[in-house]
Design brief:
Length: 271
Amino acid sequence: MMNSTKMKKPKVGIYGITGCMGCQLNILYQKELLDIIEAVDLRAFPAGKEKNIHDNLDLVFLEGVVVNEKDLRELKEIRKKTKILVAIGSCATDGCVPAIKNFMNNKNLEQSVYTKKELKQFQELNPMPIDAYVKVDAYLYGCPVDKQEFLQFIKQTFLGKEFRTYQKPICYKCNLQERGCLLEEGIECMGPVTFGNCSVMCPHENYACIGCRGPYKDANFEAYFKLLESKGIPKETIFNHLNRFAGVKFKQMIDKEVKEKKINPLIPAPK
Ligand code: SF4
Ligand code: SF4
Ligand code: SF4
């Protein structure tokens, strides 16, 4: 949840630290971009425009994950320059693919992904979502960020309305479409445990939700895993998806649940 006062023409910046640029491109290639440019003062968008003004910003959307000292320096600079900082996409909100490194040892990394030399530059910091280092005012989830949710956020900020993080899982909207349920059919859909408010395009097109928007904070993982078991779906498949998009946050959630509710640990501690 974020409070915002009505902004006449918000001074906006769109930036990225380490990431694949997919979120920034999703913004760049949306058909409403020209309307957005009319409505806001788009001061900085280095991925999309040549001349940029990096000071005195009201609102910054930031893509990417902190993997090294350079990212961290840039993140802290950006935080200082803006009133509102919005994390866009799973890298910024949850750590996404780069944060898988937190669950691997260097030897495996060296063998499976990087050479020793490449690995060195990734050893400065453990890859973390941006709120591990600075205050984040709002989160727009997804890999990539959802275009409609991004637009919704801009409109609400423009009108001075309060932005509230959507508080329902994927299943909520999916059920409104009155289609059959993939999970019921024995397909490993993550709808019940994933933050909602995307277009629900995956289940809509008959693909299981793989949880790109990260774990829904009130999700009942115990009940979910019991359901998977009853359908003969291995929970390792789900852990792989969870680790791909939100391993760090998921582990924090489960650690908290284990501590507070004394449930059985669902995932082994990272080595
Ligand atoms: S969230 Fe996904 S699309 Fe966005 S930068 Fe990260 S990997 Fe790319
Ligand atoms: S198909 Fe997936 S998202 Fe849709 S209701 Fe079933 S479990 Fe939920
Ligand atoms: S349905 Fe799931 S995997 Fe598909 S876009 Fe939405 S959150 Fe991501």
